[in-house]
């Protein structure tokens, strides 16, 4: 098992009262081959939940087990092991860039996890290539590139640690449509080519519909759905999840109602177009 939550609750400590952010969470996530989206309204506990996956937060009650390691571990070194295995990309990760050059910034993680200079350089270069950061940028300052490039550099910094599970907290937020698609394609190819489990927090239901296989829906800190995306969008209680339907499904429902084209779920625009071509030739 990659990640296991057993009846996990977490409360933020307040001055007068504590705030219960997530409650009674039970989850099992395979170390390989999953593409999971975590969705839910703002404040529903998504970021709080994923910060438990590499011990940035420790449960107020319940247990988290990551790659066989019960949290919190007794020895501090074990936390490093965990952070290497589960790579967490925060919201707006570019705010955490700080080195003089792009390559040094990407090397920071592997060096911190005891890679030699040469090894860290190799890992950083491989990670940079994955996110499309070319050699000509290596020696530039990470603060003199575009916002989209900064985000890629920050993501490369996590990839360079060669995590087995990649957790992404709204990685496409604030990017233009092309930047969004490009980044999602990078994550998808890591998932497909390397078989890595990807956990993606997103408010963008079109991206969730196109890429995720499994969706976890949070509502006020509780899991209200955990299953296949195909089952989520047809769920009888879908409206109560306060989620938007993905655009291709909205279009298909509309076409059935207004034009009589039989509803057939399609999860991305390409499959939608393909289906419409097929029905128009019949
Ligand atoms: N450091 C904190 N101290 C106190 N309360 C917090 C803290 N961080 C988050 N919370 C509260 O915990 C709840 C869950 O927050 P969380 O950030 O996990 O939500 P989220 O689903 O990630 O939201 P968003 O979609 O806006 O990123 C919210 O009500 C939030 O106000
Ligand atoms: Mg959040």
Main sheet: strand order: 6-7-8-3-9-10
CATH fold title of the largest domain: Rossmann fold
Largest sheet: 6 strands, mixed
Helix/strand order, N-terminal first: EEEHEEHEHHHEHEHEEHHH
Instruction: Count the domains.
Output: 2
Helical residue percent band: 25-40%
- Mean of the pLDDT scores? 94
Q: Which spans of ≥5 residues are poorly predicted at pLDDT below 50?
A: none
Q: What form results from the Cα inertia axes?
A: globular
Question: What CATH architecture of the largest domain do you see?
Answer: 3-Layer(aba) Sandwich
CATH class categorisation of the largest domain: Alpha Beta
Structural features, described:
It is found in: Cell membrane. It is a peripheral membrane protein. Its EC number is 7.-.-.-. With 282 residues, the protein is α/β, with parallel strands linked by helices. The protein has two domains: 3-245, Rossmann fold (3-Layer(aba) Sandwich), CATH 3.40.50; 246-282, no CATH class. Helix content is 39%, strand content 22%. It is built from ten helices and ten strands. It has helices spanning 46-51, 77-85, 102-112, 117-130, 147-159, 177-194, 205-211, 229-233, 247-259, 269-281, and strands at 3-12, 19-29, 35-39, 61-66, 69-70, 86-89, 165-169, 197-201, 214-219, 222-228. Helix 4 (117-130) crosses helix 5 (147-159). The model has no long low-confidence stretch (mean pLDDT 94). Magnesium ion binds at residues 46-47, 91, 169. Adenosine-5'-triphosphate is lined by residues 12, 19, 21, 40, 42-48.
């Amino acid at each position: 098992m990659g990640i296991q939550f057993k009846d996990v609750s977490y409360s933020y400590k307040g001055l007068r009262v504590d705030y219960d952010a997530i409650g009674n969470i039970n989850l099992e996530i395979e170390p390989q081959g999953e593409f999971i989206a975590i969705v839910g309204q703002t404040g529903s506990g998504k970021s709080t939940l994923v910060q438990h996956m590499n011990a940035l937060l420790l449960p107020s009650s319940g247990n988290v087990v990551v790659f066989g390691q019960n949290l919190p571990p007794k020895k501090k070194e074990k936390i490093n092991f965990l952070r290497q295995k589960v790579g967490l990309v925060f919201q707006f990760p570019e705010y955490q860039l700080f080195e003089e050059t792009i390559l040094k910034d990407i090397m920071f993680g592997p060096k911190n996890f005891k890679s030699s200079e040469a090894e860290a350089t190799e890992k950083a270069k491989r990670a940079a290539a994955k996110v499309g950061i070319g050699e000509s940028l290596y020696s530039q300052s990470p603060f003199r590139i575009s916002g989209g490039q900064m985000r890629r550099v920050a993501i490369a910094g996590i990839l360079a640690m060669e995590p087995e599970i990649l957790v992404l907290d709204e990685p496409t937020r604030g990017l233009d449509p092309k930047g969004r698609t490009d980044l999602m394609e990078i994550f998808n190819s890591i998932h497909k080519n390397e078989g890595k489990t990807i956990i993606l927090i997103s408010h963008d239901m079109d991206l969730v519909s196109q890429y995720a296989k499994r969706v976890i829906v949070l509502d006020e800190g509780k899991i209200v759905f955990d299953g296949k995306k195909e089952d989520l969008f047809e769920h009888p209680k879908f409206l109560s999840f306060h989620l938007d339907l993905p655009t291709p499904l909205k279009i298909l429902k509309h076409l059935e109602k207004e034009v009589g084209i039989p509803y057939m779920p399609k999860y991305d625009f390409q499959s939608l177009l393909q289906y419409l071509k097929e029905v128009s030739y019949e």
